[in-house]
Structures are given as structure tokens and as C-alpha cells.
Amino acid sequence: MRTNLKGSWLVSKYVCMRLRDTGRKGSVINISSIAGLNRGQLPGAVAYASSKVGLITLAKFIALELGIYNIRANAICPGLFKSEITGKLMEKDWIENVAKRTVPLRTHGTSNPALTSLVRYLIHDSSEYVSGNVFIVDAGASLPGVPIFSSL
């Protein structure tokens, strides 16, 4: 909670104050998680999931309260991505089998380009009309009703 939510809130607070005080427009992007979407909780993840829900709400309220200063905010909710943190998990033999059976696009993402392309768009002026949104980047893994085994 301290790192995921409080840390993000403090950084957002001071960056937004600086943007507001200097009259500059800007974009805040909170990296949440599909765990924050309430689409399938797992035991033992209460602090993690709660902090990720908080990041989504934080982005929406920044957009709502600071839009008058041309400060935009959005949240990105990634699914399971190959990264330094998940490296050991992604090396497991069974993980690809799980993706093939439960993820509609049958794969796990990599941070580049799946996440970085979206971040580049959201910080660019071409997204100046985009604020207060939640972007899900998970190959369809969090879709409600995704079957574990297809009947088709």
C-alpha cells in the first residue's frame, strides 16, 4: 500500500502542483493492474489489489479535479507481463499452457511495445482529449466469462 498507492499519490500530488503553479499542461499515468478491476480476485492479494483499485480511483479524481488546469490523468491496467519481477514465473513450463487455455490472444505481453506504446500515446499531445480513462492491456485475460476450456 505504501509504495503502490501512497508513493504514487505523493508523486502525483507534487508533479500536479508544479504543473498547476507554472501553468503547464501535463499527463499523469498510473500503472494499476487487472487485479484492480474486480474481475477475479485471488486469495492473498488484498493489499496489492486494494492498492491497484486506489490507483484507478486516483487517476479519475486527478482528471476530475485538475482538468481545469489542463492536467490529464489515466490508468493503465496490465495483465501478466514478462518483466524482471515476473521473470522466474515466466520460465515455468506450465505458464504458456495456462496462457493458451485462458487468455483469448493466447500470449503474455512484454512491456515493450505493449505498454510503452500506450504510455507514449497518453503523454503525447495527440491524446489531449483523453482523461479519466482506464486502459486494459492484458490480451483479453480479464474479460468476464472467459472460459478455461473452450467449447467451440
Supply database-style keywords.
single chain; alpha/beta; Rossmann fold; two-stranded parallel sheet; 14% strand; SDR_fam; Sc_DH/Rdtase_CS; NAD(P)-bd_dom_sf
Structure characterization notes:
- This protein is of the alpha/beta class.
- It has one domain (2-137): Rossmann fold (3-Layer(aba) Sandwich).
- 45% of the residues lie in helices and 14% in strands.
- The chain contains five helices and five strands; from the N terminus they run αβαββααβαβ.
- The strands form two sheets. Strands 1-2-5 form a three-stranded parallel sheet, with helices on both faces. Strands 3-4 form a two-stranded parallel ribbon.
- The N and C termini lie far apart (42 Å).
- It holds the Pfam family adh_short_C2.
Structural class: alpha/beta
Based on CA atoms alone, the radius of gyration comes out at 17 Å
- Bin the helical content: 40-55%
**Assembly state (oligomeric):** single chain
Condensed summary:
Pfam families: adh_short_C2. This protein has helices at residues 2-22, 46-66, 87-90, 93-102, 111-123, and strands at residues 26-31, 71-78, 81-82, 109-110, 134-137.
What's the topology here?
Blueprint: H1 2-22, E1 26-31, H2 46-66, E2 71-78, E3 81-82, H3 87-90, H4 93-102, E4 109-110, H5 111-123, E5 134-137
Parallel strand pairs: 1-2, 2-5, 3-4
Helix pairs in contact: 1-2
InterPro entries: NAD(P)-bd_dom_sf, Sc_DH/Rdtase_CS, SDR_fam
Pfam family, one: adh_short_C2
